[in-house]
Design brief:
heterotrimer, A mainly alpha, B mainly alpha, C mainly alpha, B: 0% strand, C: mainly alpha, 3 domains, two-stranded antiparallel ribbon
Chain lengths: 229, 152, 485
């Protein structure tokens, strides 16, 4: 009975969506705000990647919120998972291929991740994308040698400080720039690495935070035991 | 293909993902399938948001070698979807930790069995009989006897 | 002091809490309440300036509609202060171990995000803060970390994610139609662009999304289990404060963007359904927490009915009910912490802790709506505002509200009878701890204070509602040069 009602509901929703599709035009975005941003962003913010100037300039508060969501989810996940299993330190290593590949790929992934983070204002990419690659770099040793001790303390301190760095840069914008998260430090020459003021710094903070956060969460999942109250 | 057909295809794709996701959430009985359906649903919603910024014949909003393209697509939906994807990933990661914990506490990932366990545990804590049970005493302060289910 | 600090400081504190707690667990324990107290001070200081004139903060120095704007009128600031105060009062004082420190972090994030929700003036920004609030509540809902908590929390997460995806679809539809996300510019553009079926569909999607936390029918099925499985302080936070914030954003959207009559009708219908299902379910409930949870759903239904009445009168009535519920429900949940569980187990509570039971009676009387308590006055406002509207649907809503009050009285009196039933001294349980008692007593005193100063508080609220309903004023404040092309 319940599944029939649900099916009916979904059918109704699908019909509603189908009706809406007829009303939508593709390829003719009104761009009421987007057009102006495209035109003024090179002069106002100075980032070659205009999407970055939106993410870290015009809508920087959304990025802060997004960062906070990832942090909160990781904290909540850590709360769920609790202390590591007693036998976690003695998990067997993975096979030869995985171990060797992990040793080879770890530095490569770190470099790629950092590259994408640091160039976020010039090319597509940025803190979140690069941060995930950094986290993937840490996943590999976790998978290859599950018994290695993962220093949660260092990672969580790093994570907290990176997040705080984002907010502190924003507060400096409040003090020196007039508003919270106002871009500082001049714009430099567009297209060069040192351009767009504080935007690369913000992305570095984001990338480091995301990387350490996801790595910590994965380490928790890999070796958990929860203390039930 | 001419652009209008492309638009219809893309929008149908986005809404199709949404409908499949909702169907999955509503009809699945396995917890991991429900999580995957949520992933599909969010993917469809993100795709829809992305499509809202396209302007025909315009280029990507990136300035390469100082050359500013004449017409650029809307950068705002791209920033919005970036945020939305990360939010989705965060929630899905948390959902998976909950799934892991449920598996270890109750030993099952079937939502029907989990529903029974949940109601039983809540009723036990409150000290009342289960609403649908007909063979358990209603003595206040004494819960029903546990017949099955994993203890942590 | 810029009110944006009310959002930034708790968030900064949340990020730094793991670092601080690693240095000194004692400092970690006190850090949160300290920051929240500072927040309350900033809010109260800002009240004086905002009373003269609404404040618009352009984040990052980018003027709206290109950047995100915070719009701070008295309604927003009132809720921001209420969030800080409420989270401070309901702070989960669980100790100094790592789990407690994580819960404190989540609570700080909750305070920050709820404040952001109250202050924000941008549609997608509201979505981001809404999701932030959601994730914080996911963690807190599963905070007791037993099987029931995990299961209830997972159900909540699934329903909430479904709602969030729908909300995102609604936002996408709005953006496709108008090309902007700033609420003021949307208010300007809405009459032309959002009054057709596309706008109505967008409203329905966003309503379902925000309605998950506002305990709207039919996405409120998560409520009873989560309230039962979480600690009562968390239940108080969810029922008292977070649900009101979700309601606030729906109200803002109704006032500014979605002006169609159909939108109000949908809200009225869902409100009536919420009242009916909530109160009937509460009547059949056999344990106190479930009863309070369903009663919460019913009360929120009354608020939806109030907000579906167009104009400042509806806003005023809904605001009164919302603030009243914000005071009463957390207090009830706090008292139920010790007494929660089967109704039969409540017998003898009056002997164990007479003060708590007297408080309980006071709160219950206000909830039902017995004069001269504030609950009566709030419901009276809703009824009179609804009766002033033409049409039979509002008349039906009034009938439903009055019948619901009767049902409420019947099941709540049943509880009181149990409380005061005498049992042999050997079976009398323990009393409440002093912290719970003090907080509940403080909230009870607030109720009494409202009774004493009813007239000035009423005028103040009426002014706040009038300011919030002033659409033209909002547009003028945020976009002084009238942006849209």
């Amino acid at each position: 009975m319940r599944s029939y009602v649900s099916l009916l509901f979904v059918a109704g929703l699908a019909f509603l969506l189908f009706v809406i599709t007829g009303q939508l035009e593709f390829g003719a975005a009104p761009m009421r705000v987007g057009q102006a941003i495209n035109q003024t962003s090179p002069a106002e913010v100075g980032a070659a990647n205009i999407v970055t100037s939106v993410v870290l300039g015009y809508r920087a508060l959304d990025t802060l919120g997004e960062l906070a969501i990832l942090f909160t989810a990781a904290t909540a996940g850590g709360l769920m998972l609790g202390r590591p299993r007693a036998g976690a330190a003695h998990d067997p290593d993975a096979g030869f291929i995985l171990r060797t590949a992990s040793d080879l790929l770890f530095p490569l992934l770190l470099v790629v991740g950092l590259f994408i983070i640091v160039h976020g204002h010039l090319t597509p990419g940025g803190g979140f994308q690069g941060g995930v690659i950094l986290a993937a770099a840490f996943f590999l040793p976790l998978l290859a040698r599950p018994g290695t001790h993962f220093n949660h303390a260092v990672f969580s301190v790093f994570e907290g400080l990176a997040g705080a760095a984002f907010i502190v840069i924003g507060l400096l914008g409040l003090v020196y720039g007039g508003e919270f998260l106002a871009p500082l430090l001049g714009q430099g020459e567009m297209g060069s690495l040192l351009s767009a003021g504080t935007l690369p710094l913000l992305y570095i903070a984001v990338g480091l935070k995301v990387g350490t956060e996801l790595a910590g969460l994965m380490a928790h999942i890999a070796a958990y035991e929860a203390v039930d109250s | 293909m001419t652009p209008p057909d492309l638009g219809a295809i893309l929008f149908s794709g986005a809404f199709g993902l949404v409908v499949i996701g909702i169907l999955g959430i509503v009809m699945s009985t396995h917890l991991v399938r429900i999580v995957l359906s949520i992933v599909l649903l969010e993917t469809g919603a993100n795709l829809l948001l992305m499509l809202s910024g396209y302007r025909a014949g315009a280029a990507a909003p990136i300035i390469i070698d100082g050359v500013i393209p004449a017409a650029m697509v809307d950068p705002v939906p791209q920033a919005l979807v970036l945020t939305a994807i990360v939010i989705g990933v965060a929630v899905q990661a948390f959902m998976m930790t909950l799934v892991l914990r449920l598996r270890s506490v109750y030993g099952t990932l079937d939502i029907r069995e989990l529903r029974t366990c949940l109601e039983r545990d809540i009723a036990q804590e409150a000290g009342i009989g289960l609403p649908t049970s007909d063979n358990l005493p209603e003595t206040p302060g004494v819960g029903p006897v546990r017949t099955q289910g994993g203890d942590a | 002091m810029s009110p944006v600090l009310m959002f930034v400081l708790p968030l900064l504190a949340a990020f730094l809490l793991p670092v601080v707690a690693r240095g000194s667990p004692r400092a970690g324990r006190l850090f949160g309440p300290l920051v929240l107290s500072l927040n309350c001070v900033i809010g109260i200081l800002a009240w004086a300036t905002v009373s003269e004139q609404t404040q618009v903060i352009a984040l990052g120095g980018f003027a709206p509609p290109f950047g995100i704007a915070f719009y701070i009128d008295r309604l927003a600031l009132l809720f921001a202060i209420a969030v800080s105060l409420g989270v401070l009062l309901l702070w989960p004082d669980a100790g100094e171990d790592e789990a407690a420190q994580r819960e404190n972090t989540l609570t700080l994030v909750l305070a920050a995000s709820a404040t952001g929700l109250a202050l924000s003036g941008d549609l997608f920004n509201i979505y981001v803060f809404y999701e932030l609030t959601a994730v914080a509540t996911y963690g807190l809902a599963a905070g007791r970390r037993n099987g029931a908590a995990y299961a209830a929390a997972l159900r909540y997460v699934v329903i909430s994610s479904f709602g969030a995806a729908l909300m995102l679809i609604g936002i996408a539809l709005v953006y496709m139609a108008t090309g902007t996300l700033n609420l003021a510019q949307l208010a300007q553009l809405a009459p032309g662009m959002l009054d057709g079926p596309l706008g109505l569909a967008a409203f329905v999607f966003i309503l379902i999304g925000a309605g998950v936390k506002a305990e709207l029918f039919p996405v409120n099925t998560w409520v009873p289990e989560v309230y039962a499985a979480a600690s009562k302080r968390v239940a108080g936070l969810l029922a008292g404060i977070i649900s009101k914030l979700a309601l606030l954003i729906i109200v803002r959207l109704l006032v500014l963007v979605f002006q169609q009559a159909e939108a109000l009708q949908i809200l009225l219908l869902l409100g009536v359904l919420g009242v009916v299902t909530g109160e009937l379910a509460a009547w059949t409930a056999r344990d106190l927490t479930r009863m309070l949870a369903y009663s919460s759903i019913g009360q929120l239904g009354v608020m939806f009915i109030a907000f579906s009445i167009p104009g400042p009168a509806g806003l005023y009535a809904g605001l009164a009910v919302a603030l009243h519920h914000m005071v009463v429900k957390p207090a009830l949940f706090l008292l139920a912490e010790r007494q929660g569980g089967a109704l039969e187990r409540l017998a003898g509570s009056a002997q164990a802790s007479p003060v708590a039971c007297a408080l309980f009676v006071l709160l219950v009387l206000s909830l039902i709506g017995i004069p001269p308590l504030p609950g009566f006055w709030a419901k009276f406002l809703v009824v009179t505002a609804a009766l002033a509207q033409p049409g039979t649907d509002y008349l039906l809503a009034v009938v439903v509200i009055l019948l619901a009050a009767v049902v409420e009285a019947s099941y709540l009196f049943r509880v009181i009878v149990q409380l005061y039933r005498r049992v042999p001294a050997a079976r009398v349980g323990g009393g409440h701890d002093s912290a719970t008692l003090t907080i509940s007593a403080a909230l009870g005193l607030v109720l009494i204070a409202v009774v004493l100063w009813l007239a000035p508080i009423g005028d103040g609220l009426r002014g706040i509602a009038a300011q919030a309903a002033d659409r033209a004023g909002y547009i003028q404040a945020v976009l002084p040069d009238g942006a849209s092309s």
